[in-house]
Amino acid sequence: MPEHAVGVVGLGGLGSAAAYWLARDGVDVVGFEQFELGHVRGASHDHSRIIRRSYHTPGYVALTEEAYTAWEHVERDADTELVTRTGGIDLFPPAAAIDPEPQWTSSILAVVLFLWTPPHFWSLAAAKADDYAAAGVPMLPVVAPEREWTLAILIYTATLAALSLTPLWFGMGWIYGLFAAAGGGWFLWKSWLLYRAPSRKAAMSSFLASLIQLTLLVTGIFLTAWLG
Ligand SMILES: Cc1cc2nc3c(=O)[nH]c(=O)nc-3n(C[C@H](O)[C@H](O)[C@H](O)COP(=O)(O)OP(=O)(O)OC[C@H]3O[C@@H](n4cnc5c(N)ncnc54)[C@H](O)[C@@H]3O)c2cc1C
To answer: In angstroms, what is the span from residue 13 Cα to ligand 1's centroid?
Structure first.
């Protein structure tokens, strides 16, 4: 039986890469694969993958530094174009790629967005309750008493409006504060009116206010980032 310095078990993307780079460096390596090469039962098997540069820890991001150069080597050896550069936008909090420290503003804004979703969709479901009921979609305003879902919208809105101001403590500045307060205040006012006097019209106003609130919040964030 032939002897080899290194054996790689499993020739998916990672095993193949390990075997390839070892062989390239002159190491005597043998690969073992339980299925035929290029089979469709592994995580690597499909027609494409993206090279993402944004990850949850800086260590991962550092690992991607060499990815394009490494693929260029493989392309040259195989005399085949394997990578297509399309460009792209990774939507991740800045902390994902850069700073291992807790990023309070990004985390708070993620919670704000999380809290924003229910009152946004409940307001729409209340405004279009007949359609939702006819379609059998059990949204809260379709299945719960009026007092219950209007209160739920109010509580969520009050919480997210208050929470959206807390990034001020973490240095977001007055421009962000202005936009967050205006948007949060408007949404809260409309959901209060809905709570006081529920109607389809008031629900639609609350829904539109949720869109305005989010637009203002995002505008405040962009302006803050843009103006430094
Ligand atoms: C749908 C999907 C989309 C993805 N998209 C991306 C993306 O866009 N970008 C990105 O960076 N990552 C992406 N990933 C993740 C990435 O594809 C995987 O992390 C990577 O392919 C894993 O490679 P692997 O070699 O570890 O595993 P696998 O490809 O699963 O390879 C393991 C191999 O080991 C073999 N094996 C197992 N046991 C034995 C044994 N006892 N003896 C012999 N052989 C054995 C298996 O047959 C298999 O061939 C995606 C994953 C999936 C599933």
So the answer is: 6
